[in-house]
Amino acid sequence: MLNPTRYQITFNKLHLYKKIRALASSHSICGWSSFTSISNQNHGSETPQGLEQNIADKNVAIFWDLDNKPPRSFPPYDAALRIKKAAQQFGFVKYMIAYANRHAFSYVPPAIREQRKERKSLNQLENKGIVMPKEPYVCKVCGRRFHNNERFINHFSQIHEREQMKRLNQIESARGKRRLNLVARNAVKMEKYRNAARDILTPKVGYGLADELKRAGFWVKTVSDKPQAADVELRNRMVDMMDRRMVECLVLVSDDSDFVEILKEARMRCLKTVVVGDISDGALKRAADAAFSWQEIMIGKAKKEAVSVVGKWKDRNVLQKLEWTYDPERDKKMHFHAIEDGDSDSDSDIGCFSSDEGESLLGREKNGEWWELGQNQRPPE
Questions:
Q1: Which intervals hold domain C2H2-type (predicted)?
Q2: Between residues 107 and 38, which one has the greater pLDDT?
Q3: β-strand partners of 62
């Protein structure tokens, strides 16, 4: 049988749809003038491909050679954020890529080792009761307070770290909708644990370089231990992105002179190039459009200078458009077209005379020269 309730709902939907169509046809507001997609609309000369190209022209890619330029004297997370903020002055930072072998991730800088030694000696003094902390150690997960750093670390490891491992195991063993529900349910707790663990637990490998860069938004890849493996992978990635015209500006964090040819190739393709390194008179900085040091990146000077660099690039682009260029092929084609047009005009002029007119002209020439008057010819009065 016919369901009256279902029929009434369908009738109401059809009635509402007709009202919307009538309103859209009479008032072209809010984009209701046509129910077509953006790809089917024609906006003059600006096509969807042109829009995509305009968006791609503002993209910036950061390529970090961690084997050559790790942030040894600065915290990795802070260094990555400072580089990103400086690169944002050149456009939208869409790609952040870092390459290194496993030795770069397992290496611990001397400054980090000194901090760990000081922390270890301070823990020993706290255990003996010689030194008391000015403020208690507060657990960022549960809020408990401790006056001993070792007890605080043991509490975090035995309780919160085990809870985190239990949550990860549950998510790993689940499938389908149940897995999505577990991830959504534990997302806040897991993020809270990760933020607290960075300041409490010591990384098992190195000083947490890969994890800190990933937290800052970088895509980190570990390459083989072969010599120059990271450089080869990085160069191939840069060439691939240049061939596909995915970015307009390349930011290279390295001091390795092997990337000079890549920077020259990028400039030949009219791409902007920026280098971050410590060698003041290096070959990379001479081949790039702009260069900054680590110190300028960390103190924020590079972010301010990037504004003036972008202004110079804009002025240079305007001058290049106004500059006259000689194109021999184009001038040759224009010259040949002019000659062909002139020949066609002369042929048409010659063809407009008939044979009788030609004989009459020749006859006039036989009677005498044009400046001599005949005997029976009188000058006009």
A1: 137-165
A2: 107
A3: 96, 251
